[in-house]
Amino acid sequence: MTALVGIIMGSKSDWPTMKHAADMLDLLEVPYEVNVVSAHRTPDLLFEYAKSAQSRGLKVIIGGAGGAAHLPGMCASQTVLPVLGVPVKSRALNGIDSLLSIAQMPGGVAVGTLAIGDAGAKNSGLLAAQILATSDAELTQRILQFQQNQTNTILSQPDPRVED
Ligand SMILES: Nc1c(C(=O)O)ncn1[C@@H]1O[C@H](COP(=O)(O)O)[C@@H](O)[C@H]1O
């Protein structure tokens, strides 16, 4: 099936984090592709990726990067597709650098910034699916089911004061 979401990351080392975005898209049965592309290390490839994304059928791009995380912003500068940015937790600054690099975009170039790390990656997959669901009734139903399952899991948990 043609990919609707493009997951890109600055390095293969980002995959353990970005896998959570892919897992969510798998759960919601959204077709996606995964590529390592870097604004710093492969700038020509990034521009080609971003410029061709819409014509290749992608609807949303998720960009994960750590440190000086310019990837989502530079991608957003070259496409009309919505770009979601995931700040990957960096070794030196725990991802605060990644978060600020992604969130503090100049006006006129938009990136939707998620939380640092695994939860942000998971939510990027969910948010990408929710964007697609605005024009997909079956996907809307799968997201509703996901939300219901999540609620049921919480409600079925025992009293937190009781020891296992
Ligand atoms: N932030 C960026 C960009 C970019 O923004 O284009 N390209 C690579 N990186 C980041 O460098 C970190 C270390 O990469 P290595 O583990 O390959 O040294 C990764 O988190 C990657 O996202």
Automatic annotation (TrEMBL):
Record flagged with keyword Isomerase: yes
Gene this chain is encoded by: purE
UniProt keyword annotation of Metal-binding present: no
Family stated for the protein in its record: Belongs to the AIR carboxylase family. Class I subfamily.
Single GO BP term: 'de novo' IMP biosynthetic process
NCBIfam families hit by this protein: purE
Gene3D superfamilies: 3.40.50.1970
Catalytic activity: 5-carboxyamino-1-(5-phospho-D-ribosyl)imidazole + H(+) = 5-amino-1-(5-phospho-D-ribosyl)imidazole-4-carboxylate
GO molecular-function terms, A-Z: 5-(carboxyamino)imidazole ribonucleotide mutase activity; lyase activity
All residue ranges annotated as the PurE domain in the record: 3-154
Pathway: Purine metabolism; IMP biosynthesis via de novo pathway; 5-amino-1-(5-phospho-D-ribosyl)imidazole-4-carboxylate from 5-amino-1-(5-phospho-D-ribosyl)imidazole (N5-CAIR route): step 2/2
Protein name: N5-carboxyaminoimidazole ribonucleotide mutase
The protein's role, per its UniProt record: Catalyzes the conversion of N5-carboxyaminoimidazole ribonucleotide (N5-CAIR) to 4-carboxy-5-aminoimidazole ribonucleotide (CAIR).
EC number: 5.4.99.18
Keywords (A to Z) from UniProt: Isomerase, Lyase, Purine biosynthesis
UniProt binding sites for substrate: 11, 14, 41
SUPFAM superfamilies, alphabetized: N5-CAIR mutase (phosphoribosylaminoimidazole carboxylase, PurE)
InterPro entries named among the record's database cross-references: PurE_ClassI, PurE_dom, PurE_prokaryotes
